[in-house]
Design a protein that fits this description.
CATH class: Alpha Beta
CATH superfamily: HUPs
Radius of gyration: 15 Å
Strand content: 15-25%
Largest sheet: 5 strands, parallel
CATH topology: Rossmann fold
Shape: globular
CATH architecture: 3-Layer(aba) Sandwich
């Protein structure tokens, strides 16, 4: 059903929730995985325009992606990892298209009402930017 699944990771405890779901789905479908993290700090958002070097945060994000990729490869999955920079929703949509993914599977925070307005929602913005199906799984905070 799904040949290539894009999995946005945010470098938080929410990632394990979506990775647990994706492991099962990818096994059932025989899917390959594309992990993407969008660095969105000041350097990341301006790296190309101002010809900047990667920040320490971006290097940590790259290491996190590599670790996640290696963990999934150790479980027998075919995995690629992409570090993007900029607006998360726009970069996730672009990566899904560029990488020829047929599903985006992501964890959500489940903000409600005022929380959505204050924090914004990548998932909400993303659904307006792509026609690729999106699987949203409510993440679990660490310690719950």
């Amino acid at each position: 059903m799904y040949k290539r699944i894009l999995v946005p990771l945010e470098h938080s405890s929410y990632d394990e929730t979506i990775l647990d779901h994706v492991r099962t789905l990818a096994r059932l479908c025989g899917s390959s995985l594309v992990l993407v993290h969008v660095a969105d700090g000041w350097v990341a958002r301006n790296i190309q325009n101002l010809n900047l070097r990667e920040s320490e945060e971006m290097r940590e994000d790259r290491a996190y992606l590599t670790e996640a990729r290696e963990d999934l490869e150790g479980d027998g999955f075919k995995v690629e990892a992409v570090l993007a920079a900029g607006d998360p929703a726009q970069e996730i949509a672009a990566a899904a298209e560029r990488e020829h993914c047929d599903l985006i599977a992501m964890a959500t925070h489940g903000h409600k009402g005022l929380g959505d307005i204050i924090h914004g929602t990548t998932a909400n913005a993303l659904r307006h930017l792509t026609e690729i199906p999106i699987l949203m799984v409510r993440g679990v905070k660490a310690g719950k």
